[in-house]
Amino acid sequence: MSQPDIIAAGAVVLRKGGAGKSSDVLLVHRPKYDDWSFAKGKLDRGEHVTACATREVREETGLDVRLGVPLPDQHYAVGNRGKVVHYWIAWVVGADDVSGYQPNDEIDEVRWVPLDEADELLTYPRDRETLAAARTNGDRTRTLVVLRHAHARDRARWRTDDRLRPLLKEGEAQAARLVPLLASYDVRRLVSSTSYRCVQTLVPYADATAREIETVAELSEEDATVERVIDVVDELIEDGKRTVVCTHRPVLPDVFFTLGLADPKLDPGQLLVVHHRKGAVVATETHHVR
User: What is the pLDDT of residues 30-64, one digit of tens each?
Assistant: First the structure.
């Protein structure tokens, strides 16, 4: 019986030059293999791939990053097993100086390399292909995370105001597992329907990041109309902050209509990450916490 693929994640970390264009890419050298590549590594047990990508960059370079546009996965063999590496473009949050990096047995050098010189330094053709994909998407994007609230109590068995219906224990666990996923995109603005189950879905991330949750009645099942949802989503796009918006299954089609996207039919606790630039959607990705 064949063994399952090794799953890993990493990031092509870019640093912009003039006029908002990216000019440098962050590379690491592994003495064990004498190779130059991008920061990456295997998932820890129970870890989400997005959290793995940002953790590996932090551990291998000392830099905190936020994820941007997803890049094509790499697939290759390691011994008698397959390996899949999920990659994103990433941008540094905070200082990007690596001159004080302390070499170790795993990574002995971290270097910002001009994009037009990186191909010569990268060891593997697959990494040069990944870098080529990053070059075509190298301008910064903004992030809007559209989230369906986590698993909630059964509507048919709830006898009071539906806006007060809470999450199940399963839903509370989902909400907790959303924290590292949202953190990997450095989400700064939290917007929720006024319904308790939506607010409750964002509370763990709000607590972890010391951020407030904005409640918007127009995102609730009771108060949403197409026109109101369009106004809310247009404001979030125009505002441009890295935002998560949590709402309900019946409201989500209007959210996606406003964004010009097909409805992906999100499950409870599932989210769509929308990467946009100058009001236009340039990439999307779907993630789920179990």
Answer: 999 999 999 999 999 999 999 999 999 999 999 99
Dihedral of CA atoms 128, 132, 133, 134 in degrees, nearest 10, equals: 100
Domain shared by 252 and 226, yes or no: yes
Q: What's 64's domain CATH number?
A: 3.90.79.10
Q: Are residues 124 and 210 in the same domain?
A: no
pTM for this predicted structure: 0.94
Average pLDDT taken over every residue of the chain: 95
For residue 138, name the pLDDT band (cuts at 50, 70, 90). Answer: confident
CA distance 102 to 100: 6
* 53: its two tokens: 């990508």
AA identity, residue 36 = W
Distance separating alpha carbons of residues 272 and 284, to the nearest angstrom: 7
What's the rounded Cα separation, in Å, for the pair 140 and 21? Answer: 8
Helical (H) or strand (E) element with 191: strand 189-193
Q: Distance of alpha carbon 189 from its chain centroid, rounded?
A: 14
User: Pairing state of beta strands 243-247 and 142-148?
Assistant: parallel
The H or E element containing residue 39 is none
Rg (CA), the chain: 20
Domain boundary among 109, 136, 163: 136
Residue 180 and residue 16: Cα distance in Å, rounded?
Answer: 26
End-to-end Cα distance, the chain = 27
